[in-house]
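Tutorial handout. Part one gives the primary structure; part two gives the three-dimensional structure as tokens.
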Amino acid sequence: MWHVYILKLDDNTLYTGYTNDLTRRLQEHRYGVGSKYVRGRRPFQLVYVENFTERKDATKREAYLKKKDRCYKDKLIKSAPYPGS
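Part two.
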């Protein structure tokens, strides 16, 4: 299982990523060994998750979301009932 996720960071910016182990990846972000961008903007909140069976689908979705503006992502986040569902 692959996951595309969005984090809302302490400076109110959004970070989009993908992983095959969401729990591990969130721990890496929490401990400052995830991405440089998140490292300096902790704490964060997981606000959106999509699940995929194929890595290629997750990477395509991540790339697509990274190109979208903040307004689009905010609407997407509001449309989701709860991260991971």
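Part three, for discussion. Residues 55-67 form the longest helix (13 residues). The two ends are 14 Å apart (CA to CA).
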